[in-house]
Design brief:
single chain, 165 residues, alpha+beta, four-stranded antiparallel sheet, globular
Length: 165
Amino acid sequence: MEKKFAYVELMFFKNATKQFKKIVKDVVSKEQFYYSDQISRISGDVTDKIHFTLFYGLDESVMNNKELKKLLKKIEVKKLDLSKLVLFEGYQGMYKVLCVEVNDEDKTLYNLSEKMLDFEHDEELGKREFKAHITLAYVQPDYVLPKQYALDKKPVRVKKILLKI
């Protein structure tokens, strides 16, 4: 059985979904979406489950860790500032991941992500480079970003922070 990891994510207010759905509708046609027949979360437009993953790869044991819960309660991220559309390469080039880059010039998000390394986590996942982003959709490997798209950079308000498996 595949090992499950805990993760920390920022959830947004409902109006953010509308904002992100519009972006995807503006820049991706139905034929350009990618759907994995192996991994259910890799399924075209994922804006219905829009969130910001602060850290993925915590051991399941942290779900009951009082220190982590105390730290999460102290986190004061009220909004995320959007920067630009970006594409990440998907697994073995089978697809690309369309994202909105989140502005983290002051390194607040990066530093919070780094603090998660103090807790029990998967070593390999913990080594991944932190890139502040919000995933919008999984697209075909030949997808290219539109050159002239003006991203609505209205900040996204954070509703809550969650620790999940």
